[in-house]
Amino acid sequence: MNLPLAMADCHNDLLIPCLHRRERGHADPFGDFWLPQLRDGGVVLQVLPVYVEDQYIGEAALRRTLLLLDEAWRIAEQHPGDVSICLTGADIEQAIGSGRIAIVLALEGAESIGSNVALLRTMFQTGVRMVSMTWNRRTMLADGVGERDTGGRLTSLGVEAVQEMARLGIILDVSHLSESGFWHVESVTTGPFIASHSSCRALQSHPRNLTDDQIRAIANHGGFVAVNAFAPFLADQATSVDLVRHIQHAIGILGADRVGLGLDFMADLMPIVDPILGGALIDITSIPLLDDVQRPSDLAALGQMLISSLGEEDAAWVGSGTLRRRLTELLPPVTS
């Protein structure tokens, strides 16, 4: 029997349900639900994005972002023996080496920045180390994939934000960015950028997926791609076999040491969060999900599937090696 594979995930929105539960009187939602899940799944490194729900867009976005970041720091304070928020590459290695889960904080969309690029420095000081300039909608910095018909690229403010992120040492994430915006990023930066939770358009024609040319551009800039497990991005009636197919396709372009997992779990998010996530009332049972890759505890079985499908060496890279190495390289080496 194969030994359990160490796992890492570049995108889990668990801060939102944790804050929702805390606001409703739950003292330790992370410890009571999410921590056991992460441990059962063998997770050693987790990127936690801050996503601003539709009802907070506008001036409330900054307040909501700060509350979600505070939730992350509360979690770290409540569970110092289990998790550690990592600000540098050295922090990641120290956390994992001590048996704790290395946490990297991110912004998914930049609504909280508004038109003030100087707030990127504030976000950096609160622990943010990865930023995507858009979700699906338009921000002051760029257009998301939901605005692709506009042909929008980055705004002049967005170009300034790219430069400021490079100066600060914030990792630029192009998941959710419109295709025109992606190529604008590629043309204005010489440094690395990454896709934290995107799959392959060659296998499923969805605007949230990356073309092969985009994947090559990420590799040429020294970045990596973390493959998304949201079923509609994988196939019309997707199974975990389709997830592996997308991983294999990305490996064929990038090599296993630049392919990871950005799973974007929804099963445990939607029942907790008020059902207006995404801008409309929805029936959460109608959301198509993979039957066997729905939450962090499923990562243990996914690791064994990766070993069977990819072999032990490539599985080790995809499982956690890529994120561990590349984030360690891309984060500032020490706290400035």
Shape: globular
Helix share, percent: 25-40%
Strand content: 5-15%
Average pLDDT, all residues:
92
Question: Taking Cα atoms only, what radius of gyration do you get, to the nearest Å?
Answer: 18 Å
For the sheet with most strands, the description reads: 6 strands, parallel
Account of the protein in words:
With 336 residues, the chain is an alpha/beta fold. The chain has one domain: Alpha-Beta Barrel (TIM Barrel), CATH 3.20.20.140. Helices cover 40% and strands 11% of the residues. The strands form two sheets. Strands 1, 2, 3, 4, 5 and 6 form a six-stranded parallel sheet that branches. A two-stranded parallel ribbon has the order 7-8. Helix 4 crosses helix 11 (312-330) and helix 10 packs across helix 11. The longest helix has 19 residues, at 60-78.
Topology:
Elements: E1 7-9, H1 15-23, H2 29-40, E2 43-51, H3 60-78, E3 83-85, H4 89-97, E4 101-108, H5 119-125, E5 128-132, H6 156-168, E6 171-173, H7 179-188, H8 212-220, E7 225-227, H9 240-254, E8 259-261, H10 299-310, H11 312-330
Parallel strand pairs: 1-2, 2-4, 3-4, 4-5, 5-6, 7-8
Helix pairs in contact: 1-3, 4-11, 10-11
